[in-house]
Amino acid sequence: QVQLVESGGGLVQPGGSLRLSCAASRHDLTVYSMSWYRQAAGKQRELVAAIVAGGTIRYGDSVKGRFSISRERGKNTVNLQMNSLKPEDTAVYYCKAMVPGYREVWGQGTVVTVSS
Fold first, then answer.
1. CA distance 19 to 67
2. Which of these, 3, 16, 18, 33, could form a disulfide with 25 (CB 3.0-4.6 Å)?
């Protein structure tokens, strides 16, 4: 069984930055893609950013130009650099990985709060 562990969440002022990290508990496992989702209170979970095996990156419309996703495949790690944070970015951020067997593995989430 593989687990994903997110870190880097916390409280930040508007306009500030945070870097989230997600690491798989196993390094001998092929991970086909990794992505970040978020879910704000009372809202549906939405895609923030994704990166696939070929390096193709996709961002959610609300974070384009502010967030950047990167992956270190040898360590099955994905990072999310978040800049120019806004109060509406407040949410629980979840890491997702695609693993052998066409299965999705989700992390437990890390809380990001953007507030003065």
1. 9
2. 3
Kindly give the pairing relationship between strand 18-24 and strand 46-52.
unpaired
Q: pLDDT for 31-74, tens place per residue?
A: 888 999 999 999 999 999 999 877 899 999 999 999 999 988 67
Instruction: Tell me the C-alpha distance between 17 and 19, whole Å.
Output: 7
Reference 88, options 34, 50, 54, 41; nearest CA is 41
Number of helices and strands in the chain (H, E): 0, 11
Cα 25 to its chain centre, rounded Å, is 16
Q: Give the residue ranges of DSSP H helices in the chain.
A: none
